[in-house]
Amino acid sequence: MNIQEILNYIRIRDIVDIFIISVITYNCLKIWRGTRAEQLAKGILVVLILTKLSEWGEFYTLYWLLEKIMTWGIVGVLIIFQPELRRGLEFLGRSSSPFRGGVDTQDVVPTVKEVVDAMGSLSRQKIGALVVFERQTGLNEFVETGTRVDGEVSSGLLINIFIPNTPLHDGAVIIRNNRIVAASCFLPLSDSNSISKELGTRHRAGIGITEKSDCLSVMVSEETGAISVAEQGKISRYVDLDTLTTILSKLYAPRLTNQFKFKLGGEK
């Protein structure tokens, strides 16, 4: 059968089918890339290859053992891959809007300015801070670990929250749209081995929360005053105020900053 005959058998629906599978595969790889699931998937692939080789080579005992492992391993995969599966389902459930509720574009510039001013002041004073911006995935389970604030975003309020030895300084501030929802919130720490040893629990918490949701976190180091931004489990360190302004503007109003293409990289 030559290529022309093969092409004659291909229908439009076959092309659409292949396209859909390609999109699903690409997004799965994108979600799993750089996570524990990537390494576990490689391990499962090795087991599958060994199972087929043992069948062909008539190693019956080895084949029986590997087949049982694969049969019962499905349950184990669901348990082990639970964070990645949850992340994938959340990805499918998100709308095109970066926030669940609408954001008044008139409030975008003041909100961003207040946050940037606060981060700049805290950075100069070398006061540690961790601010999380909620997007499509709700963070109520983490809001409940802190103290409800429900206040308008302002630089003065943010600075006062993080002043050392005050009741709310220890923990994270969670911002939803244009309001500070809660302060002193406890976040999950990232267990990634690729994070620099220089980074402490504040940065691990800032990275950890972005591994479990689509939020963005901004951290200020109390040792160096450096500002860092984390998204999708990746962190960019030593971010200047101009870059932070652009990131937050894009976060709140992506259509207003389409010309600026900023992608977080660096460490994970």
Task: Describe the protein.
- By secondary structure, the chain is an alpha+beta fold.
- The chain has two domains: 3-93, no CATH class; 105-257, DNA integrity scanning protein, DisA, N-terminal domain (YojJ-like (1).
- 51% of the residues lie in helices and 14% in strands.
- It has ten helices and seven strands.
- Strands 2-4-3-1-5-6-7 form a seven-stranded mixed sheet, with helices on both faces.
- α3 packs antiparallel against α4 and α6 runs antiparallel to α10 (241-252).
CATH architecture call of the largest domain: 3-Layer(aba) Sandwich
Roughly what is the average pLDDT, rounded to an integer? 80
Main beta sheet strand tally, sense and closure: 7 strands, mixed
Task: Report the β-strand fraction as a percent range.
Answer: 5-15%
**Number of helical regions:** 10
Secondary-structure element pattern, one letter each:
HHHHHHEHEHEEHEEEH
Q: Spatial order of the strands in the main sheet?
A: 2-4-3-1-5-6-7
Number of domains: 2
CATH superfamily of the largest domain: DNA integrity scanning protein, DisA, N-terminal domain
How many β-strand runs? 7
Enzyme class: transferase
Catalytic activity: 2 ATP = 3',3'-c-di-AMP + 2 diphosphate
Keywords: ATP-binding, Cell membrane, Membrane, Nucleotide-binding, Nucleotidyltransferase, Transferase, Transmembrane, Transmembrane helix
GO molecular function, one term: diadenylate cyclase activity
